[in-house]
Design a protein that fits this description.
14 strands; two-stranded antiparallel ribbon; mainly alpha; 549 residues; two-stranded antiparallel sheet
Amino acid sequence: MKSLFSLVIITALLGLGGCSHDLLDKAPVDRITDEAVWSDPALVQTFVNSKYRDLGFGFNWNGDELLWASASDESLFSHDYGMWAINKSEITPSNLAILGSGPTEYNGNMNPWSKNYRYIRDANQFFDRIGTVPMDSAQRRQLTGEMTFLRAFRYFDLVRNYGGVPLLTQRFTLGDDYTQVKRASLSESIGFVVSEADKAAALLPATYTGADVGRATKGAALALKARMLLYAASPLYAGTNDITRWQTAAQAARAVMELNVYQLYPSYQQLFLTPNNSEVIFNRQASQQGDSFQNLERWNGPNGYGGWGGNVPTQNLVDDYETMDGLSITAAGSGYDSQNPYANRDPRLAATILYNGASYRGRAVETFRPGGLDSPDGPESFNTSPTGYYLRKFMNETRDFGSASGSQAPWIYFRLGEIMLNYAEAQNEAVGPDASVYSALNQLRARVSMPPLRAGLTQAQMRERIRRERQIELAFEEHRYYDVRRWKIAPTTENLPIRRASITKDGLGKLRYEYPSVQERRFSDRNYFLPIPLKETQANPALVQNPGY
């Protein structure tokens, strides 16, 4: 049976590969056949381009304005859409809530099982056919490297969400029997991702120029390997504290840093608004890949400005930002004042979160009551943040909330800052807090004018500092949900109620801050991994469901 590719998708993506073929000469006006694609190097290039577009991105979960951060203690999604079922541990194989909706295109992340295997099927088709395509060997090598990386990234996403998964490397076609396909072990699945990342790294260049900038590189493949190995060494995956696993993870992260291709971007806030900057290892650029309409600023902005207050930061997260002295707000001598809570705090707080009094778009944010423009007393009270905070990270303050062109912020899959944190964590677990661990962390802190960590920390103390540094540095970048699980601290962090800032203004203009709960959260052991959709286990009796579901 012939596979058919939508002309709409292909024509939208021709620009990325620099192809100028007239597709109307290749096939009927609405479809292109397998034979046409795999006999034309330009169309094969376009097929690979489409796999970049198919790669899910964190601004648009499930084709809507959800951020995966709202599945963790970083954030609360105001409008539900099924996210609360995850927050309250209510999803099941037959009730996947927000993860169960079917997409109209490869746009949001959707259900990680189906969207990844759909993608892997397409990647396997590429590997089945690429050897027969009449093309230059250098182009074949590069495209093979790109697809090897992209398929490995998809398998990584499966492993972090489900554990061991079926490792399919050949494309199933109509009539094939897949009912005996079994899940590989967790160790085998991790090993596959690492091996494929190594293969991709050997095929890919370190950098690109011109229109090819943004494609997968050697650094992207090595970054994927480093992240997978960090997970593999962590308590959830390793089971025991295996020092050799941590050593291997540290070496993998060091290999990325030693490429000497990436540098920390000077501005933390602008880092997330500047595509392909010096820190970015691999990112997605909405403006170059034909994304459908999205408007981050409107989706997440304060209601007083016309925003919808969607993914809103929690008081739980705000409390973990240190003071400028490098102290926890609960530490003696920190100077923290619960009635003036945002003064003298880590600058990443102001770069990530909009709070009462923050300067934004020409005025101060007002979440106090009564009368605050960004409180329930402001316009469209149904779009008010339930936590008293709004998201600032990723938001372009010069973009009109109603702009028909939507947002253009790049979604960063890998960046040097994360790799440095990966290295620090693995190296600390392998040998303790040596000078290289301090160096990695202090460089990140220096960028935002935070003081260096104090000397003489024990391994356990450094572990806690690294975990907090990850929470702050990587906030809203889809790490927290997985970090608390791989560290096996989710039974603590994810069972705490979500708290908010409740601010009351008296007749004299004085503000009073209180921090009550706004949403209960629940986590059980089964929530370390997601359930495999019921329809998948029904279709394949050999597919064993995750424990607890």
